[in-house]
Amino acid sequence: MGSIAPPRDSEDPSGFEQQTPQKKQKLLAKPPPPQRDEQTSKKTNSDSESEDEDGMTAEQKERYLKQVLESEGFEVDYFPGISYCCKIRPLIYLDEQPILNQNVKSCSEWAIRRFNSDNNTNYQFVEVLKANSVFCAGNEFYLTFTAKDDVVDADGDQSPVIFQAKVYAPIGGEKEYYFCRPKLKS
Questions:
Q1: Model-level pTM?
Q2: Distance from CA of residue 165 to its chain's centroid?
Q3: Fewest CB atoms less than 10 Å from the CB: which of 15, 43, 107, 154?
């Protein structure tokens, strides 16, 4: 009888079986539940103050849903302390996040090129004014930015136009274009 060979990488790609019993036990142990701040976790009997599973009060959820509905996701407030998984949220502090900032700018430039192609125009991207996002296996961006056309107005100026675009940038995949349009009048 021969000895039992250790598993090949293809049989145990994680290397778990090669760990010591103590290490296996540690890896399998459940992490402690996350600690919540006592002030934010207190619940009351009042509907407007009790939180749902996302940490939103009924009043916040109502305000959030109204903003999403009225602005199509482009004008949504920041709600501190709530879960943003699969919720539209403003991307604040973009200047402090260079990779995300570049991704937002790249998606905005790509959207205006698609708009130009679809509408036989020649707008040139100027700057991002605001970006909202839903994160779910990538970012679904709600972008508000300015672009200028070749057309010069009566005063000899090239006035920038505010655009809104919705683009999905999956992790490791091709961007998806939903639309790009001049911003709707409020």
A1: 0.67
A2: 14
A3: 154
Q: Give the Cα-Cα-Cα angle 179, 92, 35 (nearest 5 degrees).
A: 120
Task: For the beta carbon of residue 163, count every other beta carbon within 10 angstroms.
Answer: 22
Residues in the chain: 186
How far separated are the first and last CA of the chain, in Å rounded?
81
* Distance separating alpha carbons of residues 143 and 165, to the nearest angstrom: 5
- CATH architecture designation of domain 89-182: Roll (3.10)
Q: What is the pLDDT along the chain (186 residues), one digit of tens a residue?
A: 444 444 444 444 444 455 566 654 554 554 444 444 444 444 443 444 556 566 778 888 888 889 999 998 999 888 776 666 668 889 988 889 999 999 999 999 999 999 999 999 999 999 999 999 998 888 899 999 999 987 777 777 778 999 999 999 998 889 999 999 999 776
Q: How far is CA 176 from CA 51, 88, 99, in A?
A: 34, 17, 19
Amino acid present at 87: K
C-beta of residue 124 within 8 angstroms of C-beta of residue 163: no
